[in-house]
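Design a sequence for this backbone.
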């Protein structure tokens, strides 16, 4: 007698084999962004005051500061040069507040000049500019009290920007103590807050050297 092999029973139930894991399940999820503190938000808002500085001066400050300070590691030679550079930038911000521009109606050329108590003194050849015609009355651009206020505020804003620069702080205060660190953290915020209020209280329509010409200009 021979034994016959019984046929295997095929089940109609779905396979219970585990599906291979997806590669996306192992992907590292980016960590949530850290929440900004009130101090960092205040510093970010005061940093927008840098837009009130002359563009060329601010750009030169951002380019030359790491070079002069050697990325914040000053020595006896680079520290005086960095100080002289800051003085030059401060004078640039101060003097730029006493400049203005006019546009000729005949050829559309923009002329820059220095604000004086008698009016606007053009840097370009004043006689040639007057002969070209189309210029507004330059005596309307005379020096005012608002110009002095903006000049002082520009210096204060630049000081606040410089105090928040890590290269400047590392050059002059490489290892500040607790009191000095508190001053470096609080003073720029106070300057930015006060300057922002005064800029709103004393608006200006001047568009001098380094400041963009907008459609709201007096042209």
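Sequence:
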């Amino acid at each position: 007698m021979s034994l016959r092999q019984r046929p295997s029973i095929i089940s109609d139930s779905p396979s219970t084999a585990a599906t291979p894991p997806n590669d996306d399940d192992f992907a590292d999820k980016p960590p949530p962004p850290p929440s900004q503190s009130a101090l960092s938000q205040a510093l970010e808002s005061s940093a927008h005051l840098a837009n009130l500085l002359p563009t060329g001066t601010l750009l030169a400050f951002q380019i030359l500061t790491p070079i002069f300070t050697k990325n914040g590691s000053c020595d006896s030679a680079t520290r005086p040069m960095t100080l002289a550079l800051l003085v030059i930038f401060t004078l640039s911000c101060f003097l730029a507040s006493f400049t203005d521009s006019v546009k000729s109606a005949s050829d559309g050329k923009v002329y820059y000049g220095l604000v004086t108590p008698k009016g606007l003194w053009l840097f370009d050849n004043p006689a040639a500019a007057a002969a070209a015609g189309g210029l507004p009355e330059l005596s309307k651009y005379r020096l005012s009290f608002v110009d002095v206020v903006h000049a002082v505020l520009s210096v204060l804003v630049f000081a606040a920007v410089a105090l928040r620069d890590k290269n400047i702080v590392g050059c002059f205060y490489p290892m500040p103590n607790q009191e000095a660190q508190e001053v470096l953290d609080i003073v720029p915020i106070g300057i930015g807050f006060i300057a922002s209020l005064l800029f709103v209280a004393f608006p200006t329509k001047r568009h001098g050297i380094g400041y963009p010409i907008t459609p709201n200009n007096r042209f």
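The chain has seven helices and three strands.
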